[in-house]
Design brief:
60 residues, mainly alpha, 43% helix
């Protein structure tokens, strides 16, 4: 699925917040990564974040 830049920012931000509050990472964490935002970006790039985007159409 192609995400808009706003959807991408929201997904990464929400996941980074989850990681900052102690959620377990969904990928193997590289040795040099300590920031939740960087880890969330890596998870997004690997398409493993379990967040669903629901778009409303004009008919809804």
């Amino acid at each position: 699925m192609d995400y808009t830049k706003f959807e991408k920012a929201t997904i990464i931000g929400a996941r980074a917040l989850q990681l900052a509050y102690g959620a377990p990472p969904l990928i193997k964490v590289p040795a040099n990564v300590v920031e939740p935002l960087v880890l969330a970006k890596l998870e997004f790039d690997e398409d493993v974040i379990p967040i669903i985007v629901v778009r409303k159409t004009a008919a809804q």
